[in-house]
Design a protein that fits this description.
homodimer, DNA-binding, four-stranded antiparallel beta sheet, 24% strand, 40% helix
DNA sequence: ATATGCGTTTGATCTCGATCAAGGAAGATC
DNA sequence: GATCTTCCTTGATCGAGATCAAACGCATAT
């Protein structure tokens, strides 16, 4: 970086790095980025493959580069609940913890960008900014988990499906910054089973509700699992949430 | 502290401090404790009183000294879901965030120990250990929220009630370190409505399931809202979870 | 004593989503 | 091209929990 670079926070984005959206000084922290770059490795998993089991020792942390992974939890009799959806740029792993609390499973073909956890932690120990960023990200995840508790505990099947589509649409939009024209389009990578596990429903109910939304013209399913939402506000109406602020974020 | 105090981490507990269970060096960090002591204030709320509204600017952080508070979320049409139960020693507030995401409501008469948020944050900025501890606590809350997602999405009414009792019993036991003799005893402060909001049920279903557990001798309700669990393992059996390790933690 | 109010319990009935069952669509594999 | 296999859809039926309704226990107020 040129001499005389100002000591001012800048917001950078790096989908391949566990610490994304860094709002720290790029000048004094650039060496962190470089070190992260040096130690990173990529790994790809097939759909359905378990990336890590709950309770397992997990020597890596990282982030999703491409594809979708699920955090899920299973009761002794096999009932399963997804407790987190990991989309591109999401953090994977538990800094400062030896083991995972939940299974991590690839929902689609997925590529992760991984770092050795102890090396990452040593870096964290040297740089309080990274720990601060980790805290921010964890608070965001906690908020998302709690929003999901409202969905699981109090929403109807119809509202659950609509909410899922709203969330997927928003996540896709913030990733691609595409300007909506004749409505929104986004890919629905995950299977009916994954949706059911996420929403606390059965696949039959998921299928029926999607059919119903389709019959009412709220969504259209195209090729390659693309979903087209002609009127996003109408979909939000079905989600049970406040339509605060209208479209997208 | 005597001269020659060793530079060794000790685990201390301070129910009145937001940073509880500190596993840091008591020698070099004692000034943090002292500063926390200096700026703390107490405040008591009546049952049902709203401590803070979602979206509100919250200039304080702190922790529960005595009583129970609820974090809850409400849909536009009034359906409510509790997304967190704040028991004595739990942290309240969002360090580094301007506003709250959820309502904070006193479930019982409750006493909080509060700190000015910006003063607290200034302290956090000076001491990376505190931020580290905050991250740990937030990760714990995230795990708890995700456990609860499994309950909300996949457990039956019976299992939900049993799980709640198991959690309350464990929380009480870890607070009082009472040795179980003829089973466990703990106070059930919250109303049927609060339980229903927590479990994603109606008060009628909560009442019926509690009556059923009582008829089967799994729990007994005594005076002053005390619950007696003659055989904790049998209660865990009803919760749907693995009976891993048996009694208590 | 009676009234008022709140939390709780219990009963009767209904409904939404689960369960059981069958068939269809689109790739893979041979 | 035929046959799996996997995922998805749709129909018929069932049942757990919601809803509607009434009454009880217990406190405080009148």
């Amino acid at each position: 970086m040129a001499a005389g670079a100002t000591h001012r926070p800048v917001r950078t984005r790096c989908a391949d790095c566990p610490i994304r959206h860094r709002a720290v000084c790029s000048h004094c922290e650039s060496q962190d980025f470089e070190e992260l770059e040096r130690i990173k490795t990529y790994r790809t998993y097939a759909p359905g493959e378990t990336i890590a089991w709950a309770g397992e020792h997990m020597p890596l942390v990282g982030s999703v580069v491409d594809g979708v992974a699920m955090l899920s939890s299973t009761l002794p009799d096999g009932r399963r609940q997804m407790v987190g959806l990991l989309l591109p740029s999401d953090f994977v792993g538990r800094p400062g913890r030896a083991t995972l609390s939940f299974d991590v499973v690839a929902a689609t073909k997925i590529t992760l960008c991984m770092f050795n956890k102890s090396e990452f932690e040593r870096m964290v120990g040297r740089s309080p900014h990274i720990e601060h960023r980790l805290l921010e990200m964890t608070l965001d995840e906690l908020d998302a988990a709690r929003e999901w508790m409202l969905l699981l505990g109090r929403k109807t099947a119809r509202e659950k499906i609509a909410s899922l589509f709203v969330i997927m649409a928003r996540r896709d939009a913030e990733l691609h910054r595409n300007v909506p024209q004749d409505g929104l389009r986004f890919p629905l990578h995950i299977t009916r089973e994954a949706m059911a596990d996420y929403l606390g429903l059965t696949i039959e109910t998921v299928s029926r509700q999607i059919s119903a939304l389709r019959r009412q013209g709220l969504i259209e399913l195209g090729d390659n699992r693309m979903v087209h939402v002609p009127d996003f506000a109408k979909l939000i109406d079905q989600s049970g949430d406040d339509a605060d602020g209208g479209v997208l974020i």
